[in-house]
Protein backbone atom coordinates (compact mmCIF):
# COMPACT_ATOMS: atom_id res chain seq x y z
CA UNK A 1 0.00 0.00 0.00
CA UNK A 2 0.87 3.69 -0.02
CA UNK A 3 1.12 6.01 2.97
CA UNK A 4 0.80 9.75 2.35
CA UNK A 5 1.91 12.37 4.87
CA UNK A 6 0.69 15.97 4.94
CA UNK A 7 1.91 18.69 7.29
CA UNK A 8 -1.00 21.09 7.82
CA UNK A 9 -1.79 23.96 10.17
CA UNK A 10 -5.08 24.31 12.04
CA UNK A 11 -6.09 27.97 12.56
CA UNK A 12 -5.64 29.18 16.15
CA UNK A 13 -4.07 25.83 17.09
CA UNK A 14 -0.82 24.43 15.72
CA UNK A 15 0.70 22.20 13.03
CA UNK A 16 -0.22 18.52 12.78
CA UNK A 17 0.81 15.63 10.52
CA UNK A 18 -2.05 13.86 8.73
CA UNK A 19 -1.15 10.28 7.74
CA UNK A 20 -3.30 8.44 5.17
CA UNK A 21 -2.83 4.80 4.13
CA UNK A 22 -4.55 3.11 1.18
CA UNK A 23 -4.27 -0.41 -0.24
CA UNK A 24 -5.13 -0.99 -3.92
CA UNK A 25 -5.51 -4.76 -3.47
CA UNK A 26 -8.29 -4.85 -0.85
CA UNK A 27 -9.33 -1.15 -0.90
CA UNK A 28 -8.68 -0.82 2.85
CA UNK A 29 -7.82 2.71 3.95
CA UNK A 30 -6.97 4.39 7.23
CA UNK A 31 -6.11 7.88 8.43
CA UNK A 32 -4.57 9.17 11.64
CA UNK A 33 -2.92 12.33 12.92
CA UNK A 34 0.16 13.07 14.95
CA UNK A 35 1.20 16.29 16.62
CA UNK A 36 4.03 18.05 14.77
CA UNK A 37 5.33 19.50 18.03
CA UNK A 38 6.55 18.13 21.32
CA UNK A 39 4.51 17.23 24.37
CA UNK A 40 3.27 20.47 25.94
CA UNK A 41 4.30 21.79 29.35
CA UNK A 42 0.79 21.24 30.70
CA UNK A 43 -2.15 18.96 30.04
CA UNK A 44 -5.37 20.36 28.60
CA UNK A 45 -9.07 19.70 29.14
CA UNK A 46 -11.74 20.96 26.72
CA UNK A 47 -15.34 21.03 28.01
CA UNK A 48 -17.96 21.88 25.38
CA UNK A 49 -21.70 22.33 25.93
CA UNK A 50 -23.24 20.90 22.73
CA UNK A 51 -26.61 22.53 22.06
CA UNK A 52 -27.05 22.55 18.25
CA UNK A 53 -26.21 20.76 15.01
CA UNK A 54 -23.54 23.39 14.35
CA UNK A 55 -21.72 22.26 17.49
CA UNK A 56 -21.65 18.68 16.13
CA UNK A 57 -19.59 19.96 13.17
CA UNK A 58 -16.82 21.48 15.30
CA UNK A 59 -13.37 20.30 14.31
CA UNK A 60 -11.70 18.05 16.91
CA UNK A 61 -8.10 16.86 17.20
CA UNK A 62 -7.98 13.82 19.48
CA UNK A 63 -4.55 12.33 20.13
CA UNK A 64 -4.13 8.67 21.00
CA UNK A 65 -3.41 9.51 24.67
CA UNK A 66 -6.56 11.64 25.13
CA UNK A 67 -9.74 10.58 26.93
CA UNK A 68 -13.13 11.55 25.42
CA UNK A 69 -16.18 11.61 27.69
CA UNK A 70 -19.91 12.31 27.54
CA UNK A 71 -20.90 12.53 31.23
CA UNK A 72 -24.68 12.47 30.57
CA UNK A 73 -24.39 8.92 29.16
CA UNK A 74 -21.56 7.88 31.48
CA UNK A 75 -19.66 7.18 28.23
CA UNK A 76 -15.86 7.26 27.95
CA UNK A 77 -13.26 6.44 25.29
CA UNK A 78 -10.13 5.55 27.30
CA UNK A 79 -6.62 6.65 26.23
CA UNK A 80 -4.58 4.52 23.82
CA UNK A 81 -7.65 2.63 22.54
CA UNK A 82 -7.82 4.62 19.26
CA UNK A 83 -5.31 6.22 16.93
CA UNK A 84 -5.09 9.99 16.84
CA UNK A 85 -7.76 11.50 14.58
CA UNK A 86 -8.73 14.81 12.99
CA UNK A 87 -12.52 14.68 12.90
CA UNK A 88 -15.67 16.34 14.27
CA UNK A 89 -17.74 15.65 17.38
CA UNK A 90 -20.24 13.82 15.17
CA UNK A 91 -17.35 11.80 13.71
CA UNK A 92 -16.21 10.70 17.19
CA UNK A 93 -19.75 9.51 17.99
CA UNK A 94 -19.94 7.68 14.62
CA UNK A 95 -16.64 5.89 15.36
CA UNK A 96 -17.93 4.85 18.78
CA UNK A 97 -21.18 3.53 17.27
CA UNK A 98 -19.27 1.61 14.57
CA UNK A 99 -17.01 0.06 17.22
CA UNK A 100 -19.95 -1.06 19.34
CA UNK A 101 -21.90 -2.46 16.37
CA UNK A 102 -18.92 -4.43 15.07
CA UNK A 103 -19.36 -7.44 17.38
CA UNK A 104 -23.12 -7.26 17.85
CA UNK A 105 -23.93 -10.33 15.65
CA UNK A 106 -21.58 -12.45 17.79
CA UNK A 107 -23.06 -11.07 21.03
CA UNK A 108 -26.63 -11.83 19.89
CA UNK A 109 -25.59 -15.43 19.25
CA UNK A 110 -23.93 -15.86 22.67
CA UNK A 111 -25.66 -13.43 25.06
CA UNK A 112 -28.80 -11.74 23.80
CA UNK A 113 -29.34 -9.72 26.98
CA UNK A 114 -25.97 -7.97 26.69
CA UNK A 115 -26.59 -7.36 22.97
CA UNK A 116 -29.96 -5.74 23.76
CA UNK A 117 -28.38 -3.40 26.32
CA UNK A 118 -25.67 -2.39 23.83
CA UNK A 119 -28.33 -1.81 21.15
CA UNK A 120 -30.15 0.48 23.60
CA UNK A 121 -26.93 2.39 24.30
CA UNK A 122 -26.17 2.69 20.55
CA UNK A 123 -29.63 4.23 20.14
CA UNK A 124 -28.79 6.85 22.80
CA UNK A 125 -25.54 7.71 20.99
CA UNK A 126 -27.33 8.09 17.66
CA UNK A 127 -29.93 10.39 19.23
CA UNK A 128 -27.11 12.65 20.43
CA UNK A 129 -26.28 13.45 16.79
CA UNK A 130 -29.69 15.07 16.37
CA UNK A 131 -28.76 17.57 19.14
CA UNK A 132 -32.38 17.52 20.31
CA UNK A 133 -31.21 17.75 23.93
CA UNK A 134 -27.99 19.43 25.15
CA UNK A 135 -25.07 17.34 26.37
CA UNK A 136 -21.46 17.87 27.46
CA UNK A 137 -18.44 16.72 25.45
CA UNK A 138 -15.10 16.52 27.28
CA UNK A 139 -11.62 15.83 25.92
CA UNK A 140 -8.88 15.40 28.54
CA UNK A 141 -5.34 15.15 27.15
CA UNK A 142 -2.33 15.06 29.50
CA UNK A 143 0.00 15.71 26.53
CA UNK A 144 -1.72 19.04 25.81
CA UNK A 145 -1.94 18.34 22.05
CA UNK A 146 -5.69 17.78 21.62
CA UNK A 147 -7.99 20.55 20.38
CA UNK A 148 -11.66 21.53 20.00
CA UNK A 149 -12.47 24.24 17.46
CA UNK A 150 -13.75 27.65 18.48
CA UNK A 151 -15.74 28.88 15.41
CA UNK A 152 -15.75 32.43 16.80
CA UNK A 153 -11.97 32.68 17.31
CA UNK A 154 -10.25 34.92 18.23
CA UNK A 155 -13.35 35.95 20.24
CA UNK A 156 -14.20 33.98 23.37
CA UNK A 157 -16.56 31.02 23.04
CA UNK A 158 -18.99 30.90 25.97
CA UNK A 159 -19.87 27.24 25.27
CA UNK A 160 -16.23 26.05 25.40
CA UNK A 161 -14.13 25.94 28.58
CA UNK A 162 -10.38 25.30 28.19
CA UNK A 163 -8.52 24.24 31.33
CA UNK A 164 -4.77 23.68 31.55
CA UNK A 165 -3.34 21.64 34.41
CA UNK A 166 -0.11 20.12 35.69
CA UNK A 167 0.34 16.44 34.90
CA UNK A 168 0.40 13.93 37.72
CA UNK A 169 3.43 11.60 37.99
CA UNK A 170 1.18 8.76 36.77
CA UNK A 171 0.15 10.74 33.66
CA UNK A 172 3.80 11.64 32.98
CA UNK A 173 4.77 7.96 33.22
CA UNK A 174 1.90 7.05 30.86
CA UNK A 175 3.34 9.48 28.29
CA UNK A 176 6.82 7.99 28.67
CA UNK A 177 8.20 11.03 30.49
CA UNK A 178 10.57 10.66 33.41
CA UNK A 179 8.32 10.44 36.46
CA UNK A 180 8.99 12.25 39.70
CA UNK A 181 9.74 10.23 42.81
CA UNK A 182 6.55 9.91 44.82
CA UNK A 183 8.37 9.88 48.15
CA UNK A 184 10.28 13.12 47.57
CA UNK A 185 9.86 15.86 50.13
CA UNK A 186 7.44 18.56 49.00
CA UNK A 187 9.36 21.40 47.40
CA UNK A 188 9.24 24.96 48.59
CA UNK A 189 6.50 26.80 46.57
CA UNK A 190 8.85 29.75 45.95
CA UNK A 191 11.51 27.33 44.67
CA UNK A 192 8.93 25.81 42.29
CA UNK A 193 8.24 29.26 40.84
CA UNK A 194 11.96 29.86 40.27
CA UNK A 195 12.33 26.59 38.38
CA UNK A 196 9.12 26.76 36.37
CA UNK A 197 8.01 28.86 33.40
CA UNK A 198 4.35 29.76 33.91
CA UNK A 199 2.19 30.22 30.81
CA UNK A 200 -1.22 31.84 30.47
CA UNK A 201 -3.42 32.81 27.54
CA UNK A 202 -3.74 36.43 26.44
CA UNK A 203 -4.62 38.37 23.29
CA UNK A 204 -1.98 39.89 21.02
CA UNK A 205 -1.80 43.71 21.52
CA UNK A 206 -1.26 44.14 17.75
CA UNK A 207 -3.79 41.82 16.03
CA UNK A 208 -5.92 40.65 19.03
CA UNK A 209 -5.38 36.98 18.09
CA UNK A 210 -4.97 34.43 20.92
CA UNK A 211 -1.36 34.40 22.13
CA UNK A 212 0.55 32.99 25.08
CA UNK A 213 2.52 34.89 27.71
CA UNK A 214 5.41 33.18 29.52
CA UNK A 215 6.35 34.32 33.02
CA UNK A 216 9.49 33.38 35.00
CA UNK A 217 10.68 34.35 38.47
CA UNK A 218 14.44 35.04 38.36
CA UNK A 219 16.86 35.68 41.26
CA UNK A 220 19.54 38.23 40.30
CA UNK A 221 22.74 37.73 42.37
CA UNK A 222 23.42 40.48 44.95
CA UNK A 223 20.10 42.14 44.05
CA UNK A 224 16.60 40.63 44.40
CA UNK A 225 13.95 38.69 42.53
CA UNK A 226 12.40 40.00 39.33
CA UNK A 227 9.62 38.66 37.09
CA UNK A 228 10.34 38.41 33.35
CA UNK A 229 7.25 38.32 31.08
CA UNK A 230 7.40 37.53 27.35
CA UNK A 231 4.53 37.47 24.83
CA UNK A 232 4.83 35.83 21.40
CA UNK A 233 2.04 35.90 18.76
CA UNK A 234 2.07 33.07 16.19
CA UNK A 235 -0.43 34.91 13.95
CA UNK A 236 1.38 38.21 13.25
CA UNK A 237 4.82 37.50 14.73
CA UNK A 238 4.60 40.32 17.31
CA UNK A 239 6.93 39.79 20.28
CA UNK A 240 7.30 41.77 23.47
CA UNK A 241 8.87 41.35 26.90
CA UNK A 242 9.00 43.29 30.13
CA UNK A 243 10.47 43.03 33.63
CA UNK A 244 8.56 43.60 36.85
CA UNK A 245 9.77 43.71 40.43
CA UNK A 246 9.19 40.47 42.29
CA UNK A 247 9.16 42.02 45.78
CA UNK A 248 7.51 44.76 47.77
CA UNK A 249 8.19 48.49 47.38
CA UNK A 250 11.33 49.40 49.38
CA UNK A 251 11.16 51.71 52.38
CA UNK A 252 13.57 54.12 50.67
CA UNK A 253 14.23 55.28 47.14
Describe what this molecule looks like in 3D.
This protein is of the alpha+beta class and 253 residues long. The chain has 3 domains: 1-38, Single Sheet (N-terminal domain of TfIIb), CATH 2.20.25.420; 41-175, ZPR1, A/B domain (Jelly Rolls), CATH 2.60.120.1040; 189-245, ZPR1, zinc finger domain (N-terminal domain of TfIIb, Single Sheet). The protein contains 6 helices and 15 strands. The protein has helices spanning 53-56, 89-102, 104-110, 112-128, 169-174, 189-195; strands at 2-9, 15-22, 29-35, 43-50, 59-62, 67-70, 75-77, 85-88, 135-141, 147-148, 160-165, 198-203, 210-219, 225-232, 239-245. The strands form 4 sheets. The protein has a 5-stranded antiparallel beta sheet. It has a 4-stranded antiparallel beta sheet with strand order 12-13-14-15. Strands 1-2-3 form a 3-stranded antiparallel beta sheet, with no helix packed on it. The radius of gyration is 23 Å and the shape is elongated.
Tell me what portion of residues adopts beta-strand conformation.
35-45%
Low-pLDDT regions: 180-184
Oligomer: single chain
Please report the total strand number as a whole number.
15
Shape: elongated
- Mean pLDDT equals 85
Tell me the series of helices and strands, N- to C-terminal: EEEEHEEEEHHHEEEHHEEEE
The end-to-end distance, rounded to whole angstroms, is 74 Å
Pfam families: jr-ZPR1, Zn_ribbon_ZPR1
GO molecular function: zinc ion binding
Main location: nucleus
InterPro entries: Znf_ZPR1, ZPR1, ZPR1_A/B_dom, ZPR1_jr_dom, ZPR1_Znf1/2
Amino acid sequence: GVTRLLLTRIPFFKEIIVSSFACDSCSWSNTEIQSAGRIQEQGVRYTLAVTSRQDMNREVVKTDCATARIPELDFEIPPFTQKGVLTTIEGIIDRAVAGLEQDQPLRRATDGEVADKIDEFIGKLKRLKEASSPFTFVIDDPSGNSFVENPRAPQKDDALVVTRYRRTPQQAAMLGLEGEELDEKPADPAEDLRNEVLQFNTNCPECNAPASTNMKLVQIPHFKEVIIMATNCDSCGHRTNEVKSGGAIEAQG
